[in-house]
């Protein structure tokens, strides 16, 4: 029978039943997620490891009260001190990733706000808040994933509804910012769609936008890979002398260098590629030494997986012992699953900023939760507290 095991370090543990869901300013205040080599209480992670046999993968449904003690204590410490004194904080979820929104609410000790979102027959979106937000600090969780434009429009209408309901502040929490790749001009007569989308969100009435690991740091500041990935790799106890961090392209060198520094200042390698078109990558050569080492490829997203898989093939060709792929956003556009499950990668480590459909599970896939990171960030922003100190 197929199974999907949910594990928490340092020991296996159970998970709330809602995790069984299959749906699982330019910017007024963008937050940079930075990491530290030290492990804090906010760095604990949940991982979903796909272990497929015959049949469909499943997640055990259990009572959400049976939790590992360290997670329960962290949650209760936050909710006991904050919830009673912060009745003006409201958290609402769009339809793009309700499972992640529920996890964030659980970590924060809050209930998700009541909201009605429906589609008319012609595709128009209707949004109505079913509780008062007058004078409240409202946070709307909605990644702009597939269908990108529909989810973006839903977010804009949610922001507008909150503003018209006299919310004091409206913050768009966008775990995955769908147009982040078009953040600058690389050729003549190109649009900068990321700036356009950011302007749309703020024009709709959002005071702030929180996003996780944007595609590029040139125009938005630097955004790190979430620390849950670092913690997960550290738990695998790979010897420092055997590890090399690999950037799949020249544009990701800054991210990979920062990642390598957190992993005992591991050596760095770079895959040099030439892209002939969007979603098409041609690997040319490797800068650096990976022979006999465990190579960890780091990127912000995996879309069609062409870059990652061709890079993995090159690393094996150059003598790498094992190849891991780490990314924040599991976009997984076809034929990504076929490529990733082809045997070149020891493990594909992603986060749940995007919902991953059960049909896209494969044995090498591990999904880490960023709910506690986003939940703690929301609390810190609401309290006007330091965000960077989360990781100290």
Q: Can you offer a commentary on this structure?
A:
By secondary structure, the protein is an alpha/beta fold. Helices cover 26% and strands 23% of the residues. The strands form three sheets. A nine-stranded mixed beta sheet has the order 1-2-15-14-13-12-9-10-11, sandwiched between helices. It has a four-stranded parallel beta sheet with strand order 3-6-7-8, with helices on both faces. A two-stranded antiparallel sheet has the order 4-5. Strand 13, helix 8 and strand 14 form a beta-alpha-beta unit. The model is unreliable at 1-45, 54-73 and 217-223 (pLDDT under 50). This is Ribose-phosphate pyrophosphokinase N-terminal domain-containing protein. Keywords: ATP-binding, Kinase, Magnesium, Metal-binding, Nucleotide biosynthesis, Nucleotide-binding, Transferase. Belongs to the ribose-phosphate pyrophosphokinase family. Residues 89-205 form the Ribose-phosphate pyrophosphokinase N-terminal domain.
pLDDT averaged residue by residue: 80
What structural class do the secondary elements suggest? alpha/beta
Specify the oligomeric state: single chain
Q: Work out the helicity level.
A: 25-40%
- What is the gyration radius calculated from CA atoms? 21 Å
Task: Give the low-pLDDT segments.
Answer: 1-45, 54-73, 217-223
Q: Tell me the major beta sheet.
A: 9 strands, mixed
As laid out across the biggest beta sheet, the strand order is 1-2-15-14-13-12-9-10-11
Beta content comes to 15-25%
Domain Ribose-phosphate pyrophosphokinase N-terminal: 89-205
Keywords: ATP-binding, Kinase, Magnesium, Metal-binding, Nucleotide biosynthesis, Nucleotide-binding, Transferase
Protein name: Ribose-phosphate pyrophosphokinase N-terminal domain-containing protein
Catalytic activity: D-ribose 5-phosphate + ATP = 5-phospho-alpha-D-ribose 1-diphosphate + AMP + H(+)
